[in-house]
Amino acid sequence: MKIIKTSILALFFLLPFVVADLRVNFYNATCPQAESIIRQVVQKRFATDSSITGALLRMHFHDCFVRGCDASILIDSTKKKSSEKSAGPNLTVRGYELIDEIKKSLEAACPSTVSCADIVTLATRDSVVLAGGPNYAAPTGRRDGLVSNPTDVNLPGPSFSVSQALRSFNVKGMTLNDMVTLLGAHTVGFAHCNFFQDRLSNFQGSGSPDPSMDPALVSKLSTVCAASNNPTTFLDQNTSSTFDNQFYNQILLKRGVLQIDQELASDTSTAGIVSGFASNGVRFSQSFATAMLKMGSLQVLVGNAGEIRKNCRAFNPAKSKN
C-alpha cells in the first residue's frame, strides 16, 4: 500500500529545538494516549483522503502566522462577532471536521486536557509523515487563544513577490531559508483557480499568459479552470500526493502554479536554495522539520495563559472575550 511505502521513507528527526515551556511528550502524565489518539484519527482520514495533508499544513500556517499557534483559526463566527474563519484568506481553509473528531476522542479520554492548538500541530505532523515526509518530535504544551478577529488576518498572498513574502516571514522571526522551506509544503497542496487565473491569460494586465509559466501547463490549467465553480489543481503537478522535493524540481521547469512559487526559482535570493532542495530530498526534509518546529513555536500561549477549549470551535463560556 502507498501509505506503508511512503511512511517507510519518512525520516525521524529528534531535533535540538527547545521552546520555553513547550516540551516533547508534554501529555505523558496527564493524557498518555493523546498522541496515539490523534495519530489514529489522522490515519483513518488519510486512508480515504490523502489531500488532508495539504489542508492541515495550510490550516497550521494560517493559524500560526496570525496570532501565533493558538488555534484562533478554529473559532466559528457568530451572529454577534466574526472570527478569523470569515477573513478572505481563510475561506478555503478546510479540515476543521477532522480537528473536531480528534477533540471529541480526546475529551472522552482526558477531559479538558489537550489543547486544540496542540491538536493542530500534532495532526499536521502526523499527516506529513503519512504522505512520506519527515517525522519529527513536536514539543507540546500550547494553550488555546481567547481572541479571533478577521481583521488580524494578514497573510502573504499567492501573487506576492519574494521580497514581499519575506517581509511577512521576517515579522514572525522567520528567515529566507524558512520561507523557501515552508513553501515546499505546496508539494502536497492545491489551489483554486482564482488564485492564479490571471497568469493564464492576462498576467499583470498584459493580455497574455505569464511568460514564466511553461506553455504546456498554461494550456492544461486553462482547460481545468474553464469549468465552473472555481475548480482546484495540485500545486505539484508531478507527485501530487507524496511529500517530497519534487515541488522544487517543478518550479525549476517553470511549472509553478502560483506566482510566488515560480518566483522562488527565478529570484536571485532564493534560486540557490531551490536548486539545493531540488537536488537533495534529505536536505529538504531536514530543513522542513526544523522550520515546522520553529513555526510551531510562534507566540505560543503556555502555563496559565489562554485556556484548554472543550470545543475547538468556541471559546469556553467563562473566558470568552473580544
Q: What can you see in these coordinates?
A:
- The chain folds into two domains: 2-155, Peroxidase, domain 1; 162-290, Peroxidase, domain 2 (Orthogonal Bundle), CATH 1.10.420.
- Helix 2 packs antiparallel against helix 4 (96-109).
- It has helices at 2-9, 34-48, 52-64, 96-109, 116-130, 162-171, 176-183, 198-201, 215-225, 246-252, 259-266, 271-279, 281-295, and strands spanning 12-13, 135-136, 190-192, 232-234.
- The N and C termini lie far apart (48 Å).
- Residues 1-11 and 14-18 have low confidence and may be disordered.
- The strands form two sheets. A two-stranded parallel ribbon has the order 1-2.
- It is globular.
- By secondary structure, the chain is mainly alpha-helical.
- 43% of the residues lie in helices and 3% in strands.
- The protein has 13 helices and four strands.
- Its cofactor is heme b; Ca(2+).
- Disulfide bonds join 31-110, 64-69, 116-312, 193-225.
- Keywords: Calcium, Disulfide bond, Heme, Hydrogen peroxide, Iron, Metal-binding, Oxidoreductase, Peroxidase, Secreted, Signal.
- Ca(2+) 1 binds at residues 63, 66, 68, 70, 72, 84.
- GO terms for molecular function: heme binding; lactoperoxidase activity; metal ion binding.
